[in-house]
Amino acid sequence: MLELIDVRAGYGGSRVLHGVTMRVAPGEIVAVLGRNGAGRSTLARAIMGQLPREGEIRWRGQSLVSLASHQIARLGVGYVPETRDVFGPLTVLQNLQLGLGGARAKRPSTDPVRGMTLAQAFERFEELAPRRDAPAASLSGGEQQLLSLCRAMMAGPDLLIVDEPTEGLAPRVVARIGRILTDLRATGVAILLVEQKLSLALSCAQRVAVMGRGALVFEGTPDALAAAPEIRREWLEV
Known about the structure:
It is a single chain. With 238 residues, this protein is α/β, with parallel strands linked by helices. The chain has one domain (2-235): Rossmann fold (3-Layer(aba) Sandwich). It is built from 10 helices and 10 strands. Helix 3 packs parallel to helix 6 (141-154). The longest helix has 15 residues, at 171-185.
């Protein structure tokens, strides 16, 4: 289980997160919602060790606060950043080979292996198969997002943090990403989904957390959020 207790973080001298406490269990999607500037992506980066942070962040009982990003990845934590971070000059195949390397090879031998072979990756992400030898920079935005997600899944993470995967994408790609995450959750993976689209969160998450001004202002089931128009009006609607 991922546990966050009174997490505070920011950039330079500017504090963005003000005491966030939440958890994500195996086989659960928790969607973190909120307007731009609410602190959602900062939360994802803080978990992954990309920012100085205070408070407690634990994965399977082990503290992550003193660990660097690559050490966190070796504990079975995958990360799909908001910026996608595909390697443009490399081919689709080469990008996926990078995902096969480091993190899986250096995880404890007792960990279950959820990763994919390259053949399985191209079968599961069939949109990428015809582009396997194309430079990643030549892919559409939706294809790049699928590549970033597929690469993170190659090492078989037990916790996947996905930051804004649907921003600027066509509805059919948004629906495709929702199906991928739902299927992954069914295998027991814990998923923290940072998202702005309420429809996606309500359709695939078991719990939702709404952030505002760097703090949690609501946490509950999708049904509970749907029944709370005042929360949606004050913290989600533009």
